[in-house]
Amino acid sequence: MVQPVSNFDSVYIAPEMYRNEAFDRSVDTFAFGLILYEMIEGSPAFHPKPQEEAAKMICSEGLRPLFKNKPKSYPEGVKELIQECWDPTPSIRPTFSDIIERLNKISASCSKQTRWRDNFKLPWKQAVHK
């Protein structure tokens, strides 16, 4: 565990860092969940609010951005993965090994669905298996 030395106002900062509490590697998982959300939704969390306000909503108020599209608009399993990544309890967040495994399964599932086949290609497959 690492003890942070200052407060942050970034939307990607995990709540435990924002509150100046001890934290571990799961803070990276939290940030990844928000980045994956942005990739899927096409806009930052709580857009158009300023990043400082969005960080407060996420870290102090425990809010998470809403998924704006219909459930069928997302590859199966992506929403659930994002929600686990940004869980307020660090021990519930998946490890990156788990994330890669799940993304590989999501990719395999997408390759069977024609509408996702060409749009959801995962470049890390080659990097992980080298």
Plain-language structure description:
- Residues 1-106 form the Protein kinase domain.
- GO terms for molecular function: ATP binding; protein serine/threonine kinase activity.
- With 130 residues, the protein is an all-alpha fold.
- The chain has one domain: Transferase(Phosphotransferase) domain 1 (Transferase(Phosphotransferase), domain 1).
- It is 48% helix and 0% strand.
- Helix 2 (26-41) packs antiparallel against helix 4.
- The longest helix has 17 residues, at 96-112.
Keywords, separated by commas or semicolons:
130 residues, 7 helices, flat, Protein kinase domain-containing protein, protein serine/threonine kinase activity, Kinase-like_dom_sf, ATP binding
What topology emerges from the helices and strands here?
Layout: H1 15-18, H2 26-41, H3 51-59, H4 78-85, H5 96-112, H6 114-117, H7 124-128
Helix pairs in contact: 2-4
Domain Protein kinase: 1-106
GO molecular function: ATP binding; protein serine/threonine kinase activity
InterPro entries: Kinase-like_dom_sf, Prot_kinase_dom, Ser-Thr/Tyr_kinase_cat_dom, Ser/Thr_Kinases-Pseudokinases
